[in-house]
Design goal:
ATPase_dyneun-rel_AAA; ATP binding; alpha/beta; about 40% helix; P-loop_NTPase; 5-stranded mixed β-sheet; Rossmann fold; single chain; 5-stranded parallel β-sheet; globular; about 500 residues
Length: about 500
């Protein structure tokens, strides 16, 4: 049994009218799959196009357990059809011969670590869809609109050519059988087909949190700017996202006066002669070029001088494999690439965008020491700008509870929240509110004082003066915290203590 080639090309679908609805529509040579290196003409496999549409429309469900992938789709009569893949045995169950095999290939690429080129091209297609502000799963109307955009058409044709040749090569080695199948208790992994996180029990759809969105995109490369007040967890968010995707993290801390050597790298004299030493940018590029999934984490972007931010503009411009070959003369797999010219080294690094994520953070507001404003030319190169707020209580309280007793943690968190409405720009006295870092310092000082013999209540009062007030209060001409602001903090702490938070039952 095999895929019916005549049915694949004679199939008709109206899902992508920008490409056509059937017939002999040629795929341009620069979009061809590397699985077949001949220069022969390629025709759109319309059954594969229908398979792509079914997945993008959310009409395909998937569940992965060890050595078995179960998939459910809808037949032309609107009835559910079950099929399965046993990747370890290269076996397909109830795969059909026209559309369903291509749905299985997409599922295997996303969920079974198979079909590398298909996984890469599918990720790029999802990336393009998101850039057009289309939410997945999408609608047929959105597919019609997308099919008329040049970028989507190119990415779709890349996927279709790869689907056809993956099926042609793989199906010949795969056992095709029919047999009874039963649906799993839940379709946990259906969102993964669309580049999203697996569905949690009872969760109806995709994770729309900052972390969920970034993690999905980082799986195939993302350029993102995280904006928010200091101490709200932007950097930690970036680290968690990187670790969740198995990335190697390369960090760069923005500061005025940073030199090229601190950012890109430098030539160092050695006994063996001059040698290039990678800085963070070059190190991240080289790791990705060597096939390592990498996250370049640039902290406090606006503390970099404008000169170095301009260097990032060039780095974040990606080029096609064709352009890379034309400029550097290197043959690389199809895809998009970043390039970095190493000054004085005579070397140009190139890295696939799917393996290199660039996450930058910057503080919000005029009270922070920053070097100018964000250039629109740099801003537009970020595929996602996310405004990160303070962590929710359910997220941060377990962290605070580890740093102190539950009662002390409750008081500290309540005080932190209260200070957000006590600032000068709110008509009050504080220069700035508490943040996560200040609260953790506060709790550490409380614990130290308790161990020294103070009661928790007195420890909270004393710790306030050496951790919270120096950060939250403006300094007077004498170099001391503003007394009125200090008294406001003291009063708010006493208010939390009167509420009984310190001794409230868990």
């Amino acid at each position: 049994m095999t895929i019916s080639t005549s049915s694949v090309f004679s199939f008709k679908t109206a899902k992508f009218p920008g490409l056509g609805k059937g017939g002999r529509v040629q795929i341009p040579q620069h979009l061809h799959s590397q699985l077949d290196t001949s220069n022969r003409m390629r025709i759109i496999p319309w059954a594969a196009a229908e398979a792509v549409a079914q997945v993008l429309l959310g009409r395909v469900e998937a569940e992965r357990i060890p050595n078995r992938l179960t998939v459910q789709t809808i037949d032309k009569e609107g009835q559910p059809v079950l099929m399965a893949s046993h990747p370890a045995q290269a076996t397909w169950v109830n795969a059909g011969q026209t559309v369903r095999p291509y749905i299985l290939l997409i599922a295997e690429a996303q969920l079974a670590a198979k079909h590398t080129e298909l996984a890469e091209r599918w990720g790029a297609l999802l990336h393009t869809i998101e850039r057009h502000a289309v939410t997945l799963p999408t609608t047929e109307d959105h597919l019609v609109t997308l099919s008329h955009t040049a970028e989507f058409k190119d990415d779709l044709q890349r996927v279709l050519d790869t689907l056809y040749y993956t099926g042609k090569l793989y199906a010949d080695t795969c056992s095709w059988i029919t047999g009874p199948l039963s649906a799993p208790a839940a379709w946990t992994h259906s969102p993964v087909l669309l580049g999203q996180s697996p569905r949690q029990p009872g969760e109806p759809g995709a994770d729309l949190s900052e972390e969920g969105r970034l993690t999905r995109r980082a799986a195939y490369g993302i350029r993102a700017l995280l904006v928010g007040p200091t101490g709200c967890g932007k950097t930690e968010l970036g680290k968690r996202v990187a670790l969740s995707t198995g990335s190697t993290i390369v960090s760069l801390k923005g500061r005025p006066g940073l030199e090229d050597r601190d950012m890109i790298g430098f030539i160092s004299p050695t006994l063996q002669g001059a040698r290039w030493v990678d800085g963070p940018l070059a190190r991240a590029m080289r790791l990705a070029q060597q096939g390592t999934r990498t996250t370049l984490l640039i902290d406090e972007l606006l503390r970099l001088d404008a000169y170095h931010r301009n260097a990032l503009i060039g780095l974040l411009d990606d080029v096609s494999a064709t352009e890379l070959k034309a400029t550097l003369g290197v043959d690389v797999p199809d895809g998009r690439y970043y390039t970095l010219d190493l000054p004085g080294a005579g070397e140009v690094l190139y890295a696939p965008t799917r393996l290199l994520s660039v996450l930058c953070t910057t503080n919000a507001g005029s009270s922070y020491t920053q070097s100018g404003e964000l250039d629109p030319a740099l801003l537009r190169r970020f595929q996602r700008v996310m405004f990160v707020s303070y962590p929710a209580e359910a997220v941060i309280m377990p962290v605070y509870a580890k740093a102190a007793t539950p009662g002390t943690a409750r008081v500290a968190y309540a005080l932190e929240v209260a200070t957000r409405s006590m600032t000068v720009d709110q008509g009050q006295l504080l220069a700035r509110p508490m943040n996560t870092g200040v609260t953790l310092n506060f709790l550490a000082e409380v614990q130290d004082l308790v161990q020294a013999g103070l009661s928790e209540t007195n420890a909270l009062r004393e710790a306030l003066l050496v951790t919270v007030t120096p950060f939250c209060c403006e300094l007077t001409d004498e170099g001391l915290p503003d007394p009125a602001a200090v008294n406001a903090l003291k009063a708010r702490l006493e208010e939390q203590l009167r509420k009984g938070l310190l001794h409230k039952a868990a």
